[in-house]
Amino acid sequence: MKLLVVEDEPSLLSSIIRYFREEQFTCEAVSNYTDALQRIEDTPFDCIILDINLPGGSGFQLLKYLREDKKKDGVIIISARNSLDDKITGLDFGADDYLTKPFHLPELSARVKALLRRKYSDGNAVVDLDVLLIDLASRTVTTQGQPVGLSKIEYDLLLFLVTNKNRVVSRQAIAEHLYDGPSDQAPGPEFVYSHIKNLKRKLKERSCPDLIQTVYGLGYKLVV
Amino acid sequence: MSQPLQQKNTRSLLTWLPLVMLAGSVFFYLILMGHIRHMKHQQLLLKQTNVWKAYSIDPARFPIEIAGEYQITPSATPETQTEDSADLAYLKQTYQLNGKPYTITTYISSKEYHHLLIKVSIAEGIVFILLLVAIVIINRQESRRLWTPFYSTMSAIRAYDIRHSKSLPLDSTTGTEEFDQLNKTLRDLIDHVDQAYRNQKQFTENASHELQTPLAIIRSKVELLIENPGLNEDTAQLLQEITEANERLSQMNKNLLLLTRIDNGQYPETEAVALSPLIERLTHFFREYYENEVAKTTTALQPDVHINANPALIEILINNLLRNAYIHNLPGGWVEIRLSGKELIVRNSGPAVEGDPERLFDRFRKGRVDNRTTGLGLALVRQIAQLYRHDIHYTYQDGVHQLQVIFS
Which residues, at least 6 apart from A147, have a Cβ–Cβ distance to it below 8 Å? Predict the structure, then answer.
């Protein structure tokens, strides 16, 4: 999968690139408007991670150019401007998703993968991990041929871990991902532990091997 | 003790004017009396001269006495005497005629003069009182008229609110130089204060905004670091603490930014927001998220309650009220949410808060030492409630916290 990251802050850009390279993405990094425009014209990307405030122009302009040119590249906006207007403008201009800075890298990764899944799967979206089968359309989980009854939070938690499989996901990233309220007002990660415990118990009851590892107090990792 | 200007002015007039008038009256009375005495003396002298002249021409035929007018008596010794009583005044003087001394006593009635003195004094008193009343009335009228620009300036200042008012609507020409100066000074002052206030707010917003980037960088680096295969328990503990501190900082910063944006009126769009679906959605999340801590959640929501507000802000208000109820709870505790057309009540079991409950809504004020919260959640709730003029009340009784939002 080819990914273009457009971000003017070099340190943040290098973090994003490094994170996605470990996911076996082919990543390209640009940090200004002109370079970004050049790359977009030259090559189609599966997904573009796009900052709004760029030296030399706005991410919105790039997005507009892209869509007027009928290019199908998936676009996720990352912006420090947490205003509803920016979000609406971005989605109106044809962005596929919008993420406010500061974000968690596993969250960005999950958004990118969800976008690619929507883009390339033709309807029957299923995540198959051999021991675990997740049907995204009906939001059901089966293991060893048996359905596992999960609450909404447990399902979201499992899907998030599966999407970020073999990566350590921090408790904070999980708490914010599970949260269903206004952005910036998520509760703390203290109760992530109990949901992980419930999820592990339910999977174990259905004879699913233990996939979820605890990484000290930091976070969790689903290993396949 | 302070008194109104009018009252003070009248009071000083009423204290000093009567004193001045009283002194004036006494002075007037004394002068008048002196003049009257002089007049009587002159009159007695004139009468004596006339009587003596007539007597000297023909002593035999001139009557030597007319009662109440004069009396001529031969006298052995020369004498001069005056007497002035309330009824009568007389003058005794000795004259020589053909070597023989005669004493002439002339009389005039004092009564008329006395009456005149009284009448003039009363008239003068009446005039003084009328004058006093007139001065007080004119003074009050005039000062009310003179101070009108001052009072309108005062009410303009009173209506001024730095958060909402743009500038101070003051007349630049009041017709009185001092008030023109006062208004100009006040306008300049307000402009400066307003400018400083705006700069301050802008600074907070810019500072919070600029802080976002380094916070995001720290977060991303820590997230890369926790995947380091060389991680051991000791470094993991350190990373955990860095993460927690960074997340708190990040959360505080976001809330500060939000508070400033609300302050700066950056959420102007409003619409009729349906409350019960919003509350249901958020409650659903919190109930499930805190299912292992809070045992029971009850809701009684009246459908079709709408309030006019910015949907994003109302969501934050309700979210923070609920989050607060779940975080500051007891193991196995409960949360109760009630919505009616006039109020929203969130009640929950929980430990008592320390300190003044009124100050719970202040920024960075926390009910307990708790590193899970930023101390800005309820400040946001109040800020949003105030923006839409909803009243908000907090009470704690018998282990039950209650937050009540009364819709405007």
Answer: A140, A141
